[in-house]
């Protein structure tokens, strides 16, 4: 009974909001945007988006829910959606977009998409993530490349090591760094960071096709196959290249170790650039960015996006469409991605203001797109549902933290965990 | 008064009488309703959800015991249960021992007892999040105790339990005991003060030594306090979530996962509400397994008394 009462209360509240917005001059709709860009450059980007929307005559209602990775935001969003008062747009990414769309919560953005020709602006792999049954339900804000290896050149020079391009060279460089008293790999022992490192290793060993088979199609034979065992064996080798205090460390603290030269390398997505520039260093010069061993030319992508919910008021729907088109304007894409360290989702973006790592990232993005070497990052929710992702996290983080774990048994466990989570 | 003049009791009087009788029920009704719906109602709802295929949002598609079977196959759940058993037993045991010991020491008519009592009780005033964060720094090998020992010149000293998957669960116990033993002490101190001094005097006259008096006379008298302390501590153990989140976040790997953490992760971040509900029901079953025998013995004891 309190639930229905809550419902009525929420409806009343939303009716009040509606009444207020109707009292405003004609066609000024309001968009409420759920996001967790609450700190630093991200918060600045959100403010820019709000200003651009206001310039188009609509009002922006900020619905920021802080809390790493948006876990708390998702909980709030579910409550609002079930109560029938979802925000206009929410930061939802990857396969979760499909889940929300399947439940019938998302609106159709095809009219904006057709008018602005999103199909030609965005590469197919991205539109695939943004569409549900062929209709646009979400808009991308950026593209992150996950398979980056960040290198402190001074540390490398001190150890007499060279930039590794494959696994053998990586091990050689790591051993030289270790001999010089430098931690070879800066790492934080959190499940998603373990998965990020493993994903990079697996991409080299499995190759594009088997990577897709294992992590996108969840093919059991590939998941427990000999290549996966080899990837796990290499992953186990990484244990000796990280420091023993890594457990629970946040990724940005690990990046800090790299910047100070305490560690020589780090495997992390390009959001690490935020830390590099904040320390007054230049990405690509003071800290080198290269593809993770053996994955040059391949691109593991992680896309942040906004999904758009069904709204009742016409004015608000107009405002919602204005927001969708604002997000994809070259101006916003540029400002946002300069702040965030990622690259714009539009293929026609002007990259002149970006640093060399981002320019490199864009070039690889385009070539990988043409050559079919663009793969979704499963460790960041672009290839699998959160259930499968979580099941893989559990298996891998257990493996990585258990010195006696057996790669063959673990590969088998991965296949079983994925099957039971589906 | 009413009894004295039954014949003069007019209608308004009877009205007020029935109102007087109904008032407690009326006043209690909203809270009873709230408790029924918000506690038992949602408990039943969670129970129902645990038998459905609910994933991302709740749905009502009945799937039988499937979620429970998946739960029992899940290694992380088994680790969480083992951890809870270990954590519960050691945490309750050590807190009790330490609490009783400090209480007995404080009971020796010492100077500045009030100040000492406050110092020992103080950790209870801190939230588990703060305790967890502080101990995370203290136990971190590159930041806390180990570094301190190294800086002082004891370079062979290692204390890396926090980053060792086999030992990390014990760091939780250290922090939880630090937080709760003062509270146990306060409970026992109150109990000790309630014991009739003449019994102890009589024992002293009979020539009993101090340890013997405490072991044979005082502590057996405190049986009800033991029960209350165990109830409160097992509560803290079963629902502990904030401490783990702040101290280890379930890591390294998932070696310090606890059922509450497992439930939250699956129900709210991994879109497996059905599995989360099943684990919540298992936790409820665990609580009942402790609570029902206790209530039974308490109620039976009262009937006999």
The strand order across the widest sheet of chain A is: 2-1-3-13-6
CATH superfamily of the largest domain in chain A: Periplasmic binding protein-like II
Number of helices of chain B: 13
Q: Which sheet architecture does the biggest sheet of chain A show? A: 5 strands, mixed
- Count the E strands of chain A: 14
Outline the structure in words.
The complex is a heterodimer of chains A (422) and B (305). With 422 residues, chain A is of the alpha/beta class. Chain A has two domains: 2-142 and 303-357, D-Maltodextrin-Binding Protein, domain 2 (3-Layer(aba) Sandwich); 145-301 and 370-421, Periplasmic binding protein-like II (D-Maltodextrin-Binding Protein, domain 2). Chain A is 54% helix and 12% strand. Chain A contains 19 helices and 14 strands. Chain A has helices at 2-23, 40-55, 71-82, 95-102, 110-116, 118-121, 124-130, 153-159, 167-179, 191-216, 220-223, 226-238, 251-259, 272-278, 314-327, 330-340, 356-371, 386-401, 407-421; strands at 30-35, 59-64, 89-91, 131-132, 135-136, 138-140, 144-145, 148-151, 183-185, 263-267, 288-291, 299-302, 305-308, 374-376. In chain A, strands 2-1-3-13-6 form a five-stranded mixed sheet, with helices on both faces. A four-stranded mixed sheet of chain A has the order 9-10-8-11. In chain A, strands 7-12-14 form a three-stranded mixed sheet, sandwiched between helices. Chain A is globular and about 65 Å long. The model of chain A is unreliable at 1-6 and 8-26 (pLDDT under 50). Chain B is mainly α. Chain B folds into two domains: 6-49; 68-304, MetI-like fold (Orthogonal Bundle). Helices cover 72% and strands 0% of the residues of chain B. Chain B contains 13 helices and no strands. In chain B, helix 1 packs across helix 13 (273-304), helix 5 (128-139) crosses helix 7 (168-193) and helix 7 (168-193) packs antiparallel against helix 10 (223-239). The two termini of chain B are 35 Å apart. The model of chain B has no long low-confidence stretch (mean pLDDT 85). The chains are: A alpha/beta (422), B mainly alpha (305). Chains A and B meet through helix 3, helix 4, helix 18 and helix 19 of A and helix 1 and helix 12 of B.
